[in-house]
Design goal:
The protein is α/β, with parallel strands linked by helices. Helices cover 44% and strands 20% of the residues.
Length: 327
């Protein structure tokens, strides 16, 4: 069987409930929690205002189809803020560890993972703010490295406790490194600034005996060799709309890293029902041969009949030897 995990776009819970009432969605891999903890400090009909243990504040909404998250206040506005965080690093709540342990136990027949932001993800999207952190990389690379080092140390120390106490199988890192035009920095800057911290995170988790996956949107082709070299065990989402050609990535790196593609959201949204099975078949054909492949199914804003066809197509095609994958 091609292993899989499934997600439903944030604002489509009614579609999810309707779909699950019609058929059973396969789920071999389950996310069971994340660090650090966050607290809702304000709420209205449209948005939640959320504060993390680092002190950053985001405006979050799950009412729109694919969710919405905006940084309102970064955790680090000036160097002194980083010094305070370094002195009083956030700690992991044992209540959270208990909840994650119970979730792992509940899903004992599945492959489970805990998630947190990648070093870049935490630095750019929470600690400093996106534009400011990219500016730091250029103008204050030493300070940027301090922020990244703090991110690595704090996140891995908290997650180490979870791994040791819960027997979770993997850690899932999130943090977009680019957009459809390419990475947010040159390959040289990635190699000099970010790569050492990505590699450190991978080494830490591998020593703990767990796998490490990276979720990053964008055309990552210019830095893909370094992401593989850093030691990530899997890469998601490999979006074709961002020039991440699954067949090409499979040919070049398929023996070195597990590919975890998901469908192109906007393509699947507009796809006629009678083309959905062919689309799923083409994705499996491009990446599933020889293993090293996990299918990440995403239910997008689509008619319930199309969502049902999408799940059924995968169930039909996922068994090895895959007819769609004969070469």
């Amino acid at each position: 069987m091609v292993p899989c995990l499934w997600a439903v776009a944030a604002g489509l819970r009614k579609l999810q409930e309707s779909l699950m009432g019609r058929l059973e969605m396969p789920q071999d891999i389950v996310g069971i929690g994340s660090v650090p903890e966050t607290e809702v400090i304000e709420q209205d009909s449209e948005y939640d205002i959320v504060k993390s243990t680092f002190g950053d504040i985001h405006r979050v909404s799950y009412k729109v189809d694919y969710g919405y998250k905006e940084l309102v206040k970064p955790a680090i506005s000036k160097p002194e803020d980083l010094e305070k965080l370094e002195e009083l690093a956030p700690k992991l709540s044992m209540e959270q560890v208990k909840r994650i342990r119970e979730a792992v136990e509940k899903n004992r027949d599945c492959f489970t993972f805990v998630s947190h932001e990648s070093p870049f993800g935490l630095a750019a999207y929470s600690l400093r703010g996106f534009k400011q952190f990219l500016t730091d990389i250029i103008r204050s690379p030493g300070f940027a490295k301090r922020v990244l080092g703090f991110a690595v140390k704090t996140l891995t120390e908290m997650t180490k406790i979870i791994v040791e106490e819960t027997q979770v199988n993997a850690v899932w890192l999130s943090g977009d490194l680019g957009d459809r035009n390419g990475p947010f920095m040159s390959p040289r800057l990635y190699r000099e600034i970010l790569y050492p911290f990505d590699r450190e995170v991978c080494e830490i988790y591998h020593k703990l005996g767990v796998y490490i996956f990276l979720h990053s949107h964008g055309n990552l082709n210019p830095i893909l060799n370094k992401l593989v070299e850093a030691g990530f065990d899997g890469l998601n989402p490999l979006d074709e709309a961002e020039s991440m050609d699954l067949a090409s990535v499979k040919e070049k790196y398929g023996r070195k890293i597990t590919l975890i593609p998901q469908p192109s959201t906007y393509k699947l949204e507009k796809m006629p029902k009678d083309l959905i099975e062919r689309y799923v078949s083409n994705q499996l054909h491009a990446g599933a041969h020889g293993g090293g492949f996990i299918y990440y199914g995403v239910i997008v804003n689509m008619p319930i009949e199309n969502a049902e066809e999408y799940v059924r197509a995968f169930l039909k095609l996922r068994k090895y030897p895959l007819k769609c994958c004969r070469r």
